[in-house]
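pasting for the record
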Amino acid sequence: MIYDKKFALSSLDDDETIFKILIEEYIKNCDIQNEKIINAVKAENFHEIHLEVHSMKGVFQTYGVTGCIPLMKEVIHAAKNEDLDFIKNNYMTIINIAKELKEEFIKELNS
């Protein structure tokens, strides 16, 4: 499991109902946010890359998905410095983790 359910619940006063609502929202919006990042990289839109990865980083931190936070910080830094090569070499790792999290949340809802 790439997320920490106990951590996420602790920030929600252990409210399982709110947790369920939040993961439903994540599932609904994950592909949209991934596409925004992919399109921003294709368009070399560093501002949009920065905003979307920063937003995703906050979501990941909420759920205790900490393994990729350092990479996300590096991609945000690369966007600030317009380092397209670094971004192109690393952004799909973030996208793939977002997809993996979505799959785990789908399993969570179906359990």
